[in-house]
Amino acid sequence: MDETLWQEIEPWMVNIRRQIHQFPELGLETPNTAKLVENILDQLGIRHNRLIGTGVVAHVGPQQGQAILLRADMDGLPITEQTDLPFRSQIPKRMHACGHDAHTAMLLGAAFYLSHIQNSLPHPVTLMFQPGEEGPGGALPMIEAGVLDNPRVTRAVMTHVDSELPWGTIGLCGGPAMASPNDFTITLRGQGGHGAHPDKTIDTIVAASAVVQGVQTLVSREQDPTEPLVVTFGTIHGGYRENVIADEVQLTGTIRILSPGVVEHVLERFAQFVEGIAHAYRVQAEVKTVRGYPPLVADPHFTREVDTVLRRELGSDAVVQLPRPSMGAEDFAYIAARVPATNLHVGVVGPEFVTGIHSPRFTLDERALVTGSKAYAAVALYL
Ligand SMILES: [Zn+2]
Ligand SMILES: [Zn+2]
């Protein structure tokens, strides 16, 4: 790759990242970030259009052929930033604590590079800037609005900052790579009464404790022990005072599943477990589950091809094979379910590392940006 061009791109891209960082937007409401992206694409002479209101799609290279898609997300989190960076968030309860500002800047850096060498691009390149990754999801509506069509996308990559890898490295994980997060709410209804006379009541507190303990058997006895499954109760509410038996308890939590084939089965068995336990305690149970993003499965063959290209272009030491998947989630999973795809984990840890993503004190080493941007460009150029 042309190093002189990258020397020009690096400070330009860091500056863009800092602009985005100061004014985070949430969910699908990212109009100013989308506008900023469009202004930069205009300066670079790259054609673009809008999908789903705030999603931006741009095209570089030949118009015909099988396209490769490069994806960045643009949304922040409802967190008040607690860093003392000169370019920290200007808006309370909004922060780019998941590094999506860096993803957008890195993809614009790749757009800069690719627009300067358009004639050497072997295939069309689709640049996807999506809102809503942290919820309610922007990838699926953008697919439904045609982001994978015209030209037809046949491979895809995303980047995500990784606060467990040093800056200058890219981590890869082929196969099941990230989990499907499924939230649940359980309402248990019994019959309240005096704490001195439990036999005259139907106690929902005792039933709730049996449910919390009992459903863990789903993990230990029903799931293949080599396939990760997590059942976490996040909240439990119920009752009035010491000597009153609670007539209602509500529990909420999340079920994280790594294998795409078992999501339906696990959620069904979860509901059966809860209902069965509740029945034994004569309690009425209402179980609501909300299906989250599917598990992200990185195509193993495509991931190996990406590995080869990145080792050649960035140096062998720059690429790390990640030993295990993550139980975090990612809506890029919807794209990876349709075309061979992989996630480029961009290492962001430097000497001043404080803490990881989703923390109000999250920071990243900006020297990571050029590595991530080069990785996007290399994939577009050589795969
Ligand atoms: Zn996040
Ligand atoms: Zn994220």
Descriptive overview:
Helices cover 33% and strands 26% of the residues. The chain is α/β, with parallel strands linked by helices and 383 residues long. The chain folds into two domains: 264 residues, Aminopeptidase, CATH 3.40.630.10; 111 residues, Alpha-Beta Plaits (2-Layer Sandwich), CATH 3.30.70. The chain has an eight-stranded mixed beta sheet, covered by helices on one side. The chain has a four-stranded antiparallel beta sheet with strand order 10-12-8-13, covered by helices on one side. It has a two-stranded antiparallel ribbon with strand order 7-14. The relative contact order is 0.19.
Concise structural overview:
The protein is of the alpha/beta class. The chain has ten helices and 16 strands.
Structural descriptors:
383 residues; alpha/beta; Aminopeptidase; Alpha-Beta Plaits; eight-stranded mixed sheet; four-stranded antiparallel sheet; 10 helices; binds zinc ion
**Bound ligands, named by name, code or SMILES:** zinc ion
- Alpha carbon gap, first and last residue: 14 Å
Superfamily (CATH H level) name of the largest domain = Zn peptidases
What is the CATH T-level topology of the largest domain?
Aminopeptidase
Largest sheet: 8 strands, mixed
Number of H- or I-type helical stretches: 10
| Net shape | elongated
Which strand order do you get reading across the main beta sheet? Answer: 1-2-4-3-5-16-6-15
Tell me the β content: 25-35%
